[in-house]
Each structure stands twice: as C-alpha cells, then as structure tokens.
What we know:
The structure holds two protein chains of two kinds.
Chain A: H1 2-22, H2 26-46, H3 50-75, H4 91-113, H5 134-142, H6 147-168, H7 195-198
Chain B: H1 3-26, H2 30-55, H3 59-88
Amino acid sequence: METAVFIVCALVVLAGGLGVVSARNPVHAALSLVATLFGVAVLFLNMGAQFLAVVQVIVYTGAIVVLILFVMMLLGVETSDDLETEPIVGQRVLAGLVGFLFLGAILLVVIVGRDSIITGAEASSDAISTATDNIAQIGRQLFTNWVFALEITAALLTIAVVGAVALARRPADPEPIPEPESMTDTGDEPLTAVPHEAGH
Amino acid sequence: MGSDLSVAYLMLSAILFAIGAVGLLVRRNPLVMIMCLELMLNAVNISFVAFASALDDIAGQVIVLFVLVIAAAEVVVGLGLVVAVARRRPGFTADDVKVLRG
C-alpha cells in the first residue's frame, strides 16, 4: 500500500515539476506547481508526517502559490513566454548538461550506497513516538531543543515583511495630485456641527 | 519503513531537485524562476522527511518546518522585488535586470 501510494504520488510530483519547467503560460506553471505540492503533501502523509502534510497544503498551496498568482494577475502576465530565443548561446544545452550531471552524481551515490546510504545515529534528538500526536511532539521539540532557531525565524519573518513593504511601496510622486477644492478645510466656516462641543 | 522505500524517496528528491535547478537555469520569467526555487526547496523537504522516518528522529520534521518559513520569507521578498522592477519595466525577464541597476 505504501509503495503504491509512493508510485502514484511520485508520478504526480514529477509530472508537475516538468510542467512548471516546460509550461509556456506562467499560470499553467503555477497550477502544475500546485499538483507537485499536493503530491509532496501526500508523500509526507505516507511517511507519517501528518502535521507537515497539513502545513504543506495550507502554507504552500494556500498561501505561496496564491501569492504568486496574485502577483501574476497584478502585473498582467503575457499569455505565453518566449521559449525559443536563447540570450546566451548554448544556455539550454549547458543547463541540461549541468542538471544531468548533477542528477547522475546524486543518483550514483544513492544507488551505489543503497543499503548503507542512510548513516548516522538513530533517534539522536528524539524518537518519533507513536504514543503522542505528531503535532504535539513537533511542538514540544520546537519550544525546547529548537527554541533559539524558532526565535531567529520569527525575527527573519518580521524582517521579510518589513522588507517586502519597503520594496513594494510606491515611490513618492514628484508632483502630488492636489486635493479637490471641496475636500480641503479652509477653516473659516464649520460645515457641520462639531460633535465634541456638545458634550461639554 | 523499509530501507528500499527510503532510497526511492531520496531518488525522487534528487530528480525533483534536478528538474527545479534546470528550470531555474533555463526559464527567464522571474515568477517561473521563483516557482522553480520552490520545487528545489520541496525536493529538500522530501529528503528531510525521508531521513527523519528512516532514522526515527523527529528533528528532520522540525527542520522542514523551518524550511517552510524560509520559503515563505523568500517568496515574499522575491515577489516584492518582482513588483518593484515590473513597475519600471512591465513584462521584464531576468535578462533585463542582469546589470542589477535601475
């Protein structure tokens, strides 16, 4: 059963990944990315990481991809990318070669190593327990062993939000549009009754 | 979990990472490049969880949570940059900003 789920999800993940790379329309690429991320979420479930599977769906497909799609709609993406022009001669071939060599190197290590590929002490921080919930165990780890990293991450998120706001802010217009005359308060005649005087 | 399936997860992770890396090198649309980055981060996440379950260690799953947060921060800043550049030149590609100057 576990193997069957793995095979199906691996196919979905790989097809989605190829779709992201090869789709002409960026929106199609984003939808392929959603397929990939869902496949990864099911793989997480298959490996017993229930909390991460849920977080994967909420954060990645629910927030990140939607954010990318929002930006696409905001910028008005052209319907198709120009995949033919090659700005650097031989870039495609070189990129394919680099990817192939990289993949070959990793697969060689994994296949040659096979049974001894996974080394290291078992359960060096905390064993995955079946008695407590996955989420409770992760939460306990986060606030004990990893609390410093957690705080740093919080600071990083704050910095990222401030940076994004600073980047996306519209630069000040050289000539601000003047307010219409009717909106400006000239101060000579109150148009409406001033509410806070009634209270005195 | 059987050792065979762990190795299969690692192989899947390697293939997905290679796809993302090639996409990052080949594509020129900045948004698609960000998506390829996400592919690579997800490949690493798969291998983290595979190691976590193979070694029976919860730390791998905790690190994946941090990777998720880093990915979110990276996307936020990256999209901010894309919006800021696209305001000056709509429909830009990565080649238009190769000198890193407005």
